[in-house]
Write a structure and sequence with these properties.
Helix content: 25-40%
CATH class: Alpha Beta
Largest sheet: 4 strands, antiparallel
Order of helices and strands: EEHEEH
Structural class: alpha+beta
Distance between the termini: 30 Å
Number of helices: 2
Mean pLDDT: 95
Strand order of the largest sheet: 1-2-4-3
CATH topology: Gyrase A, domain 2
Radius of gyration: 14 Å
Number of domains: 1
Strand content: 25-35%
Length: 88
């Protein structure tokens, strides 16, 4: 997977997920939407066969890229919990 930052500002990110479908941006959107410092989060899907999904994040305060990194860590933790549940 490759990330393409269309907008990379302190409180505003727009990130394309090259080579991915909407699954990863959807998980990150869910996690970020629970953060009280997030003003707006969504993901955009253009034409599925040629446009990569784009996550759009705007924060009320705090660094948007740091929030996205924390959301990725949380997603990994949640997915590890699911994996562990299957191992039992």
């Amino acid at each position: 997977m490759k990330l393409n930052f269309l907008v990379d500002e302190e409180n505003h990110l727009e990130v394309q997920f090259i080579g991915e479908d909407y699954s990863i941006p959807g998980i990150l959107k869910h996690i970020l939407s629970e953060n009280k410092d997030v003003e707006f989060v969504t993901y955009v899907i253009g034409h599925p066969s040629r446009d990569p999904p784009t996550l759009v994040l705007k924060t009320k305060k705090g660094n948007a890229k740091k929030m996205l990194k924390e959301a990725v860590k949380e997603a990994i933790k949640e997915l590890d919990n699911i994996k562990d549940a299957f191992a039992k």
